[in-house]
Amino acid sequence: MKLFKFILLCLLLISAAQADTIYQLIKIPNLEIYNIKTENKLRYLYAKQPFTIGIDNNINCYTPSKQDLDKKYTIIEKNLNRYSKSFLKKINLKYIVLCEDLSISGIGTAGIPDNIMKTLILDIKFNEKYFERVIHHEVFHIINDTFKEIFDENTWSNFNPKEFNYAECSTCTKKIGLETYSNSNGFITEYSQSTASEDMAEVFSHLMYGSLPNKIDPILEKKIKFIKNALSKIDNDFIL
Amino acid sequence: MIKKIKASTSEKVIFIFILVLGLFTLTSFLLLKDKCLFVKNYDPQKINFENPKNIAILNVGCGNVIIELYPEISPNGVERFTTLIKSKAYDDVAFHRVIKDKLVQAGDLEFGKKGNIDYGKIGTGKSGLGQIESEVDREFNYVRGSVGLARAKKYDTEDSQFFIILQDEPLYEGEYTPIGKVIYGIEVLEKIKYLDKSEYVLRPDFINSLRLLVN
Lengths: 240, 215
Prior knowledge:
The structure holds two protein chains of two kinds.
Chain A: H1 2-14, H2 21-26, E1 31-35, E2 43-47, E3 51-53, E4 59-62, H3 66-80, H4 85-91, E5 95-104, E6 107-108, E7 111-114, E8 119-123, H5 131-146, H6 153-157, H7 196-209, H8 218-234
Helix pairs in contact in A: 5-7, 7-8
Chain B: H1 9-33, E1 55-60, E2 63-69, H2 75-86, E3 97-99, E4 103-106, E5 146-149, E6 162-165, E7 177-184, H3 186-189, E8 209-212
Antiparallel strand pairs in B: 1-2, 1-8, 2-7, 3-4, 4-6, 5-6, 5-7
């Protein structure tokens, strides 16, 4: 065993340091190009091996099967094609990382946006029922992070009844249901009640996916108007 | 009377083998010592260029690297590059970042000059002309030999540093400002000194000169 370790160490020491272009660009290891020839210039990458990132190595994601990848890519691309090249440039989104069983600090999540690295990590195995809508939800977080000043959370929170308070963070609450309410009452899903940012993302994703409740209450009406106005400030040509 | 001893056939074979081995070792040593031995050195004066105004000649240890510049793709980037070439600012500047078979990077005018290298700061130096905006909106195929301006993490931070890629890098499109492409002498760059363990080179190779073909 000692001899084996010694040989392994020797091999590591004499092997040349290989530079990984994807890692250099977005600081995520073990990725491979899936498709980069897209109209809106989004670059789709996938995990050829599991990867661990984050300050405390708290973000994990695993390699998807080729079959799953091919199937989900079609859905993801169809949805992301709705964002133009110029809009994506404005919001700072360029790389889509596809993997499965994405988690942050052990909690499963649909996506992890990072507007600084222009990257959105997507779990291709996330809840089938809401998968398409959730893609837009995650894109909204990129938009929000890039234009914090436009999506003012205090203004947004003032739309809610005075007695309502959001949770401290999106993972500090048990309100995680993604089912669209038939009777909205200011919120579009249970998850909308977690934080202001998640609430905005839920409204945006329903607008993009075209799944707004039939009956829209006055509070939700204001929230929809707020999102539309904010988006027009970013890009007048953006079509919801 | 001294008896003459005749060498046996096997002794003769061993002798010849040692002789050949010695000759082979000596020749190999001499050949390996000269890293530029099989590298062709292009003479720009003997080449007909379609647009000589856009030709730059980078002279390094093993010869000339001939670069065609693309002002129509990145006007500001090329203007900065040619401004610095005209002032001979790139002469004696180190290839401070070299990744084997991948890229060579040079152009730190502040901390990368021969005789004045600062290994602690190399790669962060400025030209004194200020930063320029990234020109990444035009389509550009980053194939082997493409020349781009290096930048910090953020866009619009290009200054004097440039890189030349030694393999195709399609992901560089939209990331880095392209300024040209090596049309002759890319093999010269494969001989630039690199380290196995680090991208940053200790005791690096230097640019001898960088000139425009037509001033």
